Amino acid sequence: MSSRGGSGGASGDGMVPLGVLLKRELSSDKIEKPDMLYGLANHSKKGEDFTFLKTECQRGAGEGATTFCVFAVFDGHNGSAAAIYAKENLLNNILCAIPSELNRDEWLAALPRALVAGFVKTDKDFQDKAQTSGTTVTFVIIDGLVVTVASVGDSRCILESADGSLYVLSADHRLDVNQEEVERVTSCGGEVGRLHVAGGAEIGPLRCWPGGLCLSRSIGDLDVGEFIIPIPHVKQVKLSSVGGRLIISSDGVWDALSFESALDCCRGLPPDAAANQIVKDAVKAKGLRDDTTCIVVDIFPPEKSSPPLAPPKKQGMGVFKNMFRKKSSESSSHHLEGDYIEPDIVEEIFEDGSSILAQRLDLEYPICNMFKLFVCAVCQIEIKPGEGISVHANSKSGRVRPWDGPLLCTSCQAKKEAMEGEKPSKALSRKQDASE
Ligand SMILES: [Zn+2]
Q1: Separation of CA 235 and ligand 1 centre (Å)
Q2: Which residues contact 91 (CB under 8 A, 6 or more apart)?
Q3: How far is the centre of ligand 1, averaged over its atoms, from the C-alpha of 4 (Å)?
Q4: CA of 123 to the centre of ligand 1 (A)
Q5: Which contiguous run of DSSP H or E holds residue 167?
Q6: Tens-digit pLDDT profile for residues 56-68
Q7: What pLDDT is recorded for position 436?
Q8: Which residues pair with 143 in a beta bridge?
Q9: Which long-range contacts (CB under 8 A, 24 or more apart) does 389-393 make?
Q10: Which regions of 107-164 does DSSP assign to beta strands (E)?
Q11: Distance, CA 320 to ligand 1 centroid (Å)?
Q12: 297-319 average pLDDT score
């Protein structure tokens, strides 16, 4: 642990900090290193879809080092600058928000908060460059059998587990389908409605005004209200030991194909042929109306000696699991001779899509103690004692003390207030300036 943060639970003299205990316990767990194959296909119309593929990313150093893979789709709008900027900077901004010296399980537990920080920092940095384009992001991190997906916008990621169950790992932030987000944008001062044409008729999807964007979350979009936020929906699952198939696609695919038909049209094909087939079918169904991009990732068990037990078909959402529960199924090879085999199903570890930054950055003890206190929880700059602003400041609970972490720097606090609609956004104030 490089430092202690948060407000509670510091250990007394002579006690071993909980983080160390967890490290000891978890480091004994066997880390599965499954095999993985991927394929990518793209049919471009506007040239605003971008992808990011990086395998063999290094986590940690020395003996405990492991590798992870990143696959991402960025679907830009109003130009491609935001998509390119996010592609080039997002991973680094996420990794900078993860404390060093974590073991693998702590690293996985720290990812959801680091993804939020990295998305917000990337959006803030890009907006500081005063460029007006925006982008969706579907960002997938695969570490062993654990898949973590962070998403803003309407590119989507789905998982088909080996038993044929379908899991949707991303959110859909289209105003047309997300009433909760319509209410959030409206309460922050945005206007949501359809385009008016001559004669008074309303056409097209629901859009947010000013700006006319049909998404409620994105990276970039300086000229749209700041209630169009970059805070991602994050979902983390652990695949069963028999693996599964991921499909990550821009809306060019999902406007033409249902989740089921995308999976069905490429069943049995290797990932590169599968990605090609999905793009081909999408274009065939609707014509080439949009950039159409697809990444297919197959995750296999590491050399499976015996055929997997067919688990019961299970659809959809599971329960929120304790991240630090020691999972005996991880060492299932030791139990194969026994009478009892644990059900081998996809485990849903974490899910949060809230738009409230304070909630997304505030983690339960013991995870909160992995993060440094005197560093801005979003942009990671150092804060002098007494200068940080609690992420809970102005919250309605009233229990906040100024030193309650996580803390934000002044600039990130201003960003937070703008996202929550507590001050006029840049777009609105610019409009007012223009009319004066
Ligand atoms: Zn900051």
Answers
A1: 24
A2: 52, 54, 57, 70, 118
A3: 19
A4: 12
A5: strand 166-168
A6: 999 877 777 889 9
A7: 29
A8: 146
A9: 389/413, 391/357, 391/358, 391/361, 391/362, 391/416, 392/358, 392/362
A10: 134-143, 146-152, 156-161
A11: 30
A12: 53
Reference 121, options 113, 365, 210, 356; nearest CA is 113
Burial of 407 (0-12, 13-18, 19+ CB in 10 A): buried
Distance 124 CA to ligand 1 centre (A): 10
382 CA distance to ligand 1 middle (Å): 8
Strands (E), 213-345: 219-220, 233-238, 244-249, 292-300
Helix axes 104-128, 410-419, angle to 10 degrees: 80
CA of 102 to the centre of ligand 1 (A): 22
CB neighbour burial string for 157-195, b if at least 16 within 10 angstroms, e if fewer: bbbbbbbebebebbbbbbbbebeebbebbeebebebeee
pTM: 0.82
In tens, the pLDDT along 101-147 reads 888 999 999 999 999 999 999 999 999 987 889 999 999 999 999 99
pLDDT of 421 > 80? The answer is yes
CA of 385 to the centre of ligand 1 (A): 14
Identify the structural domains of the chain with CATH numbers, from first to last: 35-362 (3.60.40.10)
Could you tell me the distance, in angstroms and rounded to a whole number, from the CA of residue 120 to the centre of ligand 1? 10
Least confident among 81-95, 277-291, 335-349: 335-349
- Mean pLDDT, the chain, as a whole number? 82
Q: How many CA atoms lie within 13 A of 404 on its CB side?
A: 16
